[in-house]
Design a protein that fits this description.
Blueprint (H helix, E strand, L loop, with lengths): L16 H4 L13 E2 L11 H13 L11 H11 L6 E5 H13 L3 E5 L3 H9 L4 E5 L8 H11 L3 E5 L11 H10 L3 E5 L3 H4 L13 E6 L1 H5 L4 E5 L2 H10 L7 H12 L1 H23 L4 E3 L6 E6 L3 H10 L2 E2 L1 E2 L9 E5 L3 H14 L1
Parallel strand pairs: 1-11, 3-4, 3-5, 5-6, 6-7
Antiparallel strand pairs: 2-8, 7-8, 9-10, 10-13, 12-13
Helix pairs in contact: 2-11, 3-11, 4-5, 6-7, 12-14
Length: 357
Amino acid sequence: MKTKSRKTKDIVDLVQPAVRGLAAYHIDETSVRVKLDAMENPFLLPDSIGKEIGKAAQRALINRYPDPSAKKLKQAIARYWKMDPARMLLGNGSDELIQAVILAFGGPVVAPSPSFAMYEITALALSQKVVTVPLTNEFGLDADAVIKAAKRSKAKVIFLACPNNPTGNRFSDAAVRKVLEKVDAAVVIDEAYVSFSGKTFLPFLKMHRNMIILRTLSKIGLAGLRIGVLTASKEIIGELNKIRLPYNINTLSQAAGLVALKHASTLNKQISLLISERRKLYNALLRTPGVTPFPTETNFILMWIERDATKVFQALKKRGILVKNLDQPGPLKGCLRVTIGTPAENKEFLKTLKQIL
């Protein structure tokens, strides 16, 4: 006797529609000689500090769960950036903290465009509506348009990357504070590149109860540790702590971060060198025919290429130099983004770019 086989549903059909409709965040994993696509600090720590980190890793109790609130690391970061550790939360990179904010507040979410892609990707993955507001022609923040969009959509969260990725510029204090004062929403100011701008909204934190500031150790030379930093009012921290994943900062990252921050002067020297190299590379690009670099307060430069930017990107890649290709229809059409590398890397990139052009 034959039995009827029950037709099973494709397992992918069970995935939430919001997730099925997403495109994964693209990371180019091509092995290249000069990697200038990911806004990383190109400098290794000195061997002496590396050995110190190695010893700390050997002593780490990896058979035990890590300190759940990463108290010592939090205190070290608080000293480095002059923050109140009682008003801080650490995350597995800023990405986890972005997710935590959206989980806690919900949506709709408002963000400028173009800006850091993970604001929109994370919100959509959590089935939240996203409203994007175009930047001005000079990549400035249109505060009135953001306020209008937030009120019309009844937004719960607004993300403002300051300085902004991928444009490199920092929004004006007046525009950001206008948004803070006029909306009934959590305003997340992402200061991932604060070390390269030297300007911060941290002094305004106690004046605006709806302000949340994000930072990261990634851009100062510790990207591999995946440590994001959030500071806000104690009330907001209390709510976010309810949904923070337990033991989210692993033992080895805590140990290595503590050692690295003991040598903050070394990190700061590297940052100063990158700022100096940024100025040199920007000025050189200004003098390069067919290239228009945009002003920047980050560790990267956005540039418009007069000829086919994608072909230039591919030609650089073929010669072992990887930059970020942003050449898509819209305000970034014809644009590439280059991370500031070592003096030798910057020289090679510039020489190769000129040869291609």
